[in-house]
Amino acid sequence: MTELNAIALEGVVKEYLSHGEVVQAVKGITLDIAEGEFFSLLGPSGCGKTTTMRMIAGFEEPSKGVVRLHGQDVTNVPPNKRDVNMVFQSYALFPHMSVWDNVAFGLKQRKTPQAEIKQRVGEMLEIVDLAGREKRRPREMSGGQQQRVALARALVNRPRALLLDEPLGALDLKLRQAMQIELKRIQREVGITFVYVTHDQSEALTMSDRIAVMNDGLVEQLAGPREIYERPATAFVAGFIGTSNLLAGTASGGTLELGGGKVLVPDRDGPVTVTVRPEKITISTDKPGGDVSAVPGTVAEVVYLGTYNSYAVSLADGAEVTVFQQNAHDSTTTAERGDSVWLSWQARHSYAIGS
Amino acid sequence: MRSRGGRLGDRLLHVYTWLVILWLSSPIAVMIMFGFNDTPSKSNTSWHGFTLKWYQQLFEISDLTTALRNSIYIALISTVITVVIGTMLGLALGRHRFRGQGATNFLVFAAISTPELVMGASLLSLFVSANLPRDAITITIAHVLFSLSFVTVTVRARVVTLDPSMEEAARDLGATTWGTFRQVTLPAILPGVLAGAMLAFALSIDDYVVTSFVNGSTLTFPLWIVGSVKTGIPPQVNVMGTLIFGLGVLIAIGNAVAARRRT
User: Per the UniProt record, which residue ranges are transmembrane (chain B) (predicted)?
Assistant: First the structure.
């Protein structure tokens, strides 16, 4: 290893005793998070992402496995002695303290000299755009401002890594989108490793360098946003990230016969599930030529959605395929409800996935 | 535009409100007034003109002064003990899940709903069978017992409104367990703790029923007053009552001002 990872999890398991039964919230996770990376733990509620983060922060002790921060084993180190800081979903600001005292809290615990506290808190409030509001109490501020106080309170300590537990969950859509860009900017500015827990796939795709998609206590796929979206490793990832069509059948000789059409599945034989994204599919009335995947179907529904049209197309075997068509030139639709159409896509746009 | 009927209703509500306030405050008004009564005899029940002499002769009756001093000491000490134990209980019940929690909650409620007579009588038998001499100490123990539940309930009510992540945030920012309690938890529950302390003090300083069982030969302010009913309550009692009431009003005002400053 030439460079130490900011965070490393090695075979981490977390078990709880619930009504006399052992429940595994995290079933064995091994991953490395690089220095300066924006890393997301993405998954539905109950998938173990928050538990995983709490083990990194030190609020939960793993039942098995090792947590390392910069190569150092911190598995049994309490949270106040770990060089990471957390932004809580509820912000967890101290209601009886001013914004200034909230942000200065961590530095005071460390017995930082008064002059340095003054300088660093001031700088940090500048970065999160809260200069001039030092004397406010948290409850006098809007959700977005409280969010930024929480962020400043954690970042001012210059932790080796910042952990964020669904920090934008309580904000409305517009503010959430603005804060996503803001978070990314702050991360670039301070250059600290961010570990971000979210169930919102678009949030994870927007901000992350890498994403670990979690389900049922395990990591289903760990890759960059583009790869997670374009090449989902499992049916779960395909279904959880964006909209995805799953076509199942038995392939032979690199082709999957499907209701009078064919799906190209290079190097595959036997039972297979193929995933293809709705926006990759072209809809046409004539059978397309050339070396593409093409299946016939009947339009069951057309929905106009402004920037694009969404088609639901029924295949001969009863499967329904969703197709998005951009409203690039005019808003006329290629097909109407009840029309017989052909769906086609490039072979490289569909993937055979694990079960 | 509001209707005539509505305006009449408003006016009636106004009158009714003032009647209730008058009714509630009349005993206090009478107590304060008779502290200024220039009564010639021992009985202080009819008006004889205004005087300030009872304020000058406030501590003339040495038994009464001793009784008041006992009451104040007992109230202060039992309040401190009650607040410490009650705050810990309230925190435990409001924050944590533990074996025996249901039973503890039930006990807290039971202590509030037990009639004072029953509590006094059973405490007396307990102290007698434990061979404890009845004095200021047994009175203090008894006062801690009956005010503990009130402090617990007040603190617990405050604790459950707190964001449980707040203490984790303090730990995360480097505070020790004790540092977290001192800098974050205690200030956050302080309004509940102070309210509990005032309740405990108020319950203690005017308790008669339970105290009368466990006092032995020690007299407190309420016990002395009840004992002097037959011979006539001297105006000094009114003056002391007025001063205690005035202190309570000052604390209430201070609390209201502090609450306004906090928001």
Answer: 12-36, 72-94, 106-130, 136-155, 184-205, 239-258
Distance (Å) from the alpha carbon of A177 to chain B's nearest alpha carbon:
25
User: Does some domain include residue B136?
Assistant: yes
In CATH terms, the superfamily for domain A245-353 is Nucleic acid-binding proteins (2.40.50.140)
Preferred mutation among A88, A120, A146 to probe B, highest tally of B CBs within 10 A: A88
Domain coverage including residue B162: 62-233
Strand order in the sheet with A7-18: A21-33, A7-18, A64-69, A72-73
What are B165's two structure tokens? Answer: 């992540």
Flag if B165 and A89 touch (Cβ within 8 Å): yes
Report ipTM for this prediction.
0.80
Q: Rounded distance, CA B164 to CA B184, Å?
A: 11
The pTM for the full model equals 0.78
Give which of A33, A17, A35, A167 is closest to A91, Cα–Cα.
A167
Which residues have CB under 8 Å from A291's CB, separation 6+?
Answer: A264, A347
Q: Map residue A217 onto helix, strand or coil.
A: coil
Residue B38 lies in a domain: no
Taking the C-alpha atoms of residue B222 and residue B212, their distance in angstroms, rounded to an integer, is 9
* Domains contained in chain B, number: 1
d(CA B229, CA B247): 25
Q: Do domains A7-235 and A245-353 have the same CATH topology?
A: no
Determine the residue of chain A that is closest to B171 in CA distance. Answer: A80
| CA atoms within 13 A of residue A241's CA, in its CB half-sphere | 33
Is residue B23 in a domain?
no
A interface test, pick of B159, B168, B173 with most A CB neighbours within 10 Å:
B173
CATH code of residue B119 = 1.10.3720.10
Buried b (16+ CB within 10 A) or exposed e, B207-217: beebbbbbbee
- Cα gap B66→A296, rounded to integer Å: 102
Would you kindly state where each structural domain of chain A is located, as residue ranges? 7-235, 245-353
Query: Taking the domain A7-235, which CATH number applies?
Result: 3.40.50.300
Instruction: Kindly state whether residue B93 falls inside one of the protein's structural domains.
Output: yes
Q: Are A273 and A235 in contact (CB under 8 A)?
A: yes
One digit per residue, the tens of pLDDT, for chain B of length 263 reads 455 556 888 899 999 999 999 999 999 999 999 999 998 877 788 899 999 999 999 999 999 999 999 999 999 999 999 999 999 999 999 988 888 899 999 999 999 999 999 999 999 999 999 999 999 999 999 999 999 999 999 999 999 998 889 999 999 999 999 999 999 999 999 989 999 999 999 999 999 999 999 999 999 999 999 999 888 889 999 999 999 999 989 988 988 898 787 65
Q: Per-residue pLDDT tens for A183-241?
A: 888 898 888 999 999 999 989 998 999 999 999 999 999 999 999 998 888 889 988 98
Name the residue among A10, A40, A47 with its Cα closest to residue A210.
A40
Query: Judged by CB atoms within 8 Å, which residues 14-33 of A form the interface with B?
Result: none
